[in-house]
Amino acid sequence: MPPLIHLVTAWLVGACFGATGLLSGSSIAAIACGAAGAGLVIGWSRGVDRRATAVVCAIVAAAVAWQARALSDQQRTCRAALGAALARGDTLHAVFDDEARPTASARGVGPMRSDGPMRSDGPMRSDGPVRSDGPVRGVAAGSGRFARCRVPVSARVVSGHARAGYWVALSGRTQITTRGLRVDAHLETPPTARRDALRAVRGRAGAVIDRDFGVNAPMVRALLIADQDGIAPSVREVFADAGLVHMLSISGLHVAIIAGALLIVLRALRLSRTIAFAVAMLVVVFYVAMLGAPPPAVRSAVMLGVVGLSERLQRPTHPWTALALGAVIPALQPLVVLDLGWQLSVSGMAALVAARALLRRVRLAERRGHRRAVRRALAWVQGLRGWQYALARELVTGTVATIVTAPLIAWTFGRISVIAPVSNVVASPLVAFIQPALFLSVITSPWPSLSKLIADATAPALAALHIVADSAARIPYATLHIAPTAAGAICAGIASAAGVRATASRLWLPGFVVAAAALTCAIWLPLLGRGTGQLEMHVLDVGQGDAIALRTPRGRWLLIDAGRRWDGGDAGRRTVVPYIRRLGGPVSALVVTHAHDDHIGGAASVIQALSPQVVWEPAFVTPSATYRATLELLGRTAVPWHRVQPGDRWVLDGVEIRVLAPDSIWTAHQNDANETSVVLRVRYGEIVFLLTGDAERAEEEWIVANTDSALLRADVLKVGHHGSKTSSSELFLDAVRPRLGVVSVGANNSYGHPSPSTLGTFADRAIPLLRTDLEGTLVLSTDGRQLSARVGGERWVVPPR
Q: Which residue range(s) make up the domain with 124?
């Protein structure tokens, strides 16, 4: 293997250790010295070249690890400094990728958007997802001694306006996350606004996409300008189940397709190969820069340039060398190794190169000396021609890529798509047609009629892509839901790396032995322990309904509600059960807050699949067929049933669960199930969660009047009735005084939840809100002293009152 690949490997290993903070500076130095010494000893008997390579690799790994650790510390310092500046009331400079203007979700006033269909947890619509009033993303910069600090910012604009690509003054309430800052922003345009040309071009492209593509705009934004914010979480889940989630982001595939289309067009114009290649590369470089240079796109552009240049110079380049350069050049900024897109892009490309090498060896393999069955298999493979060989090649490549990227996908999305090799074979031709057409549509934007015509022509292909994803995700056992641990994920990663090495090497047995041993560890290690040592509240994204899962420090579950039901399905079977099974652990109790279908709709599925030890509910009888069916199921399965009363208390793994409402006298005088909602106080250490179901003002007033004020204080409030104007009264909020509110609500729901008046009430009290319609599933965790939030890959500590 060429020395370049060894150096690249050392660079990437050093970047991984430094960026993740696994090693201190002294540890890095000690390991570097040890590695250099080991390289000298091992290489002494194997020749000067190997000895020198070992020494250089050790030095490179140590230097890169040191640099990555320093950059990681610098970014952490910058995030803290800029967050503290905003908390003091200072202003920062900011520039955004899209036009930034106030939204209903940030202002707390104005109507809900209704420019698209209501999101559903039933069958996926073929007309595409709807862009929500989500945050606008960009970069914030400091001043003075922090003038070099630039951190990603995600802003919900409360007041002011900013054009895409123009710097503005930013102020407002902020939260510091692992990625940057989340700000409820007030914007002010200075008299002489600076302009970021590339971001402005990207913003213009986004505006053209919104103009021409309508309901398909969120998907097109993801495919063309790497903007995934508008894609509904439910749609992302379907693509993840189908093994097509990588197609929702700009990857090497998208850049390669555009480059290939440009070369075909330029060659059709009778330009020479050299000129066509130069023009295509210039366009690709500008396109990648306009996107913000995402690592997968940079990797693809580098590989295209290396391969194209070697062809022009008639100098053969080994595929692994091209991949090594494509992987390491984005990693010249070492923290890029933490980017999931880069990880998937590099591992997927490594799988492709290894699979092609494997196929080549099989095609050239001698049949003599093998058993009869092996000879027949070799003869069949070597006899494939034309479309049959092309199909077999794609299936083999897809299978190897699925196996190699499985640890990353499992760690990030909690699943492995078994159907991915087949779904990618079907979807890839659609993307190969869609991508150049989308690119052409944006290029022709100065002529709106033409660009709209091209956009309309892509609609059937976009609908077909949705159908492929939906159909693949619906196949039984197409997806394996798992709950990987850190140790298991590391072992699985080692298995993947060893598998690639074995596939690409002539000596395949050692690699496969290492892969098998690592895979065995990955399977068995998660079985040795349960729980995280923290209390976790998972607010599941079930659309317009409620489903909350509390996970105790020892890994047991308390479920509160199970989402809604629809014709042919329910959120319990579709969302709650797979989620709990993926993370693992027994269900100790199911609490049904009240007998409305958006809360009890999935209860029967949860009881059948997860067998809770007891079911709690208020025993307010309604004519709901779902409620009746749930009670009948409890009778058949003999699951204990308990009617709650104020004062009921249960301690589970150090977590205290206390019932605050309703009592039987109150329940007997009600005619609305919402007003009989079970209200729970959950305490772990010093942190308190208050879960209110659909309690409305009357029940809130009863709770305030009949509960010790000390028991009402809470750090987190699950906002009642999906943020309806009939709940979250000022009296109740002033009694609870939460640090954070969470709203379980469906995107673009027909009820107008959450109400603008409720949003305004929270905004007036400076209580931040997290919403499932904008963020997807929310996870709050605490060790009993500190409260943290995990939303969409971002983590942050919730500040004290």
A: 91-195
